[in-house]
């Protein structure tokens, strides 16, 4: 017999994978300056430190690290990761912290626990592409919340809650991907209140929190949540290493934590003990504050170089001025199309991601996402000049 | 508002986690001899070797191992893992091999790709508990196939296929968990033919394959599959380390592989590069054959000790005589109940898992699973003596 598309689960059939993965294939071209990715800088990665810690923890814990572990995690890591998250006001302790394979798995397990086909999830628009795909894989109905320069507009979100009775709200509160926007403090408090009032779980996806280059740290949404409606999701990908795939979900509702643990039993039994022990040692040896300070120093200069580079862009271009994170978001003048300009940019050896991909409902062809973490300052200057020239030409 | 059970996804509500995880909590008792687990022996784990390889690969690949990687895997590992699986007749090369977080994730991604709620999956009965839970989480309808001492009875399976039109068949062909039974060679060939004739995907879960202590290696079901209906799932958990969580799925149908990769993008983006590189180095340095020979030597003695220990059991007990793997399966004489006897065994400081848990439809209270890999020979002798005494007492 012939294997056909109809053999796939119904909601998986239309999902053909991330469009921007196709974009990434173009980036191997020699001389290409890429603002398309979302990786940390290679200079933020420390293979020597990880090798040393790997040796230390394998000597310390021996066969324990190589045997099966508990699904709910390696207790030393749960403790040190909870302490790290708590520094900025995340609630809950080690017993509420679930180690996961990056923030992606935290969201996947939450969707698995909660979503029946057709259930509504509220999300920002634009939002993280991976989250859009994950929600579609669970056959959720995505409803976009209105946002402005302070993030989600609370009153509009409340109207949507009343209308759609969503089970879940997905928010990236700090230096949002793709826009770089940070949710205002009073809105964080108000969203926590909405969650509690209407019984909506909030997935607070906060992987960039500590990559702050200016302004004051804001308390997480979870810090305002007295009843346990907010699941706080973090990751060590942007701080220590994406390739190690280690994140943490802080789930203060024990019923919900238990259901996510059950989902993880079947998904992968537990997160690797070696990576949990390495990150635990990293945190306990006090390496994180100095490391974050060092990488933020570099990223701040790169962000500034990118912001200055917008002087090369067509007049009328608007862009965000993020206080941290990895991305700047731009909107080209009326009549322009960032998707259409993309092949010309690639010809000129510079790349970005067209913003339309980040909208659950598409459209918004004038927008684009620019990443600054993977290029040194002079490269950013050169790239912005190239891109500006392409766009000015396209604007004619 | 109050969070209630009704907020969970419908099919997740009744799933309350593995019953045998509760059993495992009893095993910390001092002096307890446990035949309940399924872990490799601690003597099979090599923290020094893993520490050395970890240092070597981090030096060799540097920041590459700490950056984001491709969802479809780290190419050197895909190559060496494919070569390792191919030794026994698995088909497909590196481009068909998907690195996963243990065999569990391979099955999870396959279910995600294929199963709509209510779809039928054929499985052995008894079968692996984790697989039962995973299938229930996708709301699959489990239909048990008849088996005998040669594994799945092909004619009966064909009748079930005609009746239920399953999308998927789940089989553990070699040293099955929980029974230790191996699927006969001609039946492997016949199942591959059924898959192709009726368009059923076979999930061939084969994590114990190389833990063979007697008899000849058999070709995998996949080796008879000309059309790509069989997904071969393996794992390095039982050979190198379960705590590292690394396995591999060999998926020769490119459409199906692509859909599993898409599922993995959302689930965890990719498997950690560090663990892929460590296992790759282990394989390329030629450490596997000697390691497997060494651990099989030990396990063979432990298995024999356990088989001999059945002389202490009540008359009329029958048990399997596996040629490898980690488990022996026993059926107590008529009228006895292994679940009922369990607390008495725990009082006598010996533990096992009642067989009823491994049946999708329950029942079969006379059966039990005994693991021999975690106890040295004298401990096995003592434990079988204790257990035999408890059961003989219960038989009175």
Short recap of the structure:
Chain A has twelve helices and 15 strands.
Description:
The structure is a homodimer of 396-residue chains. With 396 residues, chain A is of the alpha/beta class. Chain A folds into 2 domains: 5-45 and 289-395, Aspartate Aminotransferase, domain 1 (Alpha-Beta Complex), CATH 3.90.1150; 64-284, 3-Layer(aba) Sandwich (Aspartate Aminotransferase, domain 2). Chain A has 12 helices and 15 strands. Chain A has helices at 19-25, 47-61, 75-86, 102-114, 129-137, 154-164, 185-198, 254-268, 273-284, 287-309, 338-347, 377-395, and strands spanning 33-34, 97-100, 120-124, 141-145, 147-148, 151-152, 168-171, 201-205, 230-235, 247-250, 318-319, 327-331, 350-351, 353-354, 367-371. Chain A has a 7-stranded mixed sheet with strand order 2-10-9-8-7-3-4, sandwiched between helices. A 4-stranded antiparallel sheet of chain A has the order 11-12-15-14. Chain A has a two-stranded parallel ribbon with strand order 1-13. In chain A, helix 7 (185-198) links the parallel strand 7 and strand 8. In chain A, helix 3 packs across helix 9 (273-284). The longest helix of chain A has 23 residues, at 287-309. The N and C termini of chain A lie far apart (56 Å). The interface between A and B is large, with 87 and 87 residues.
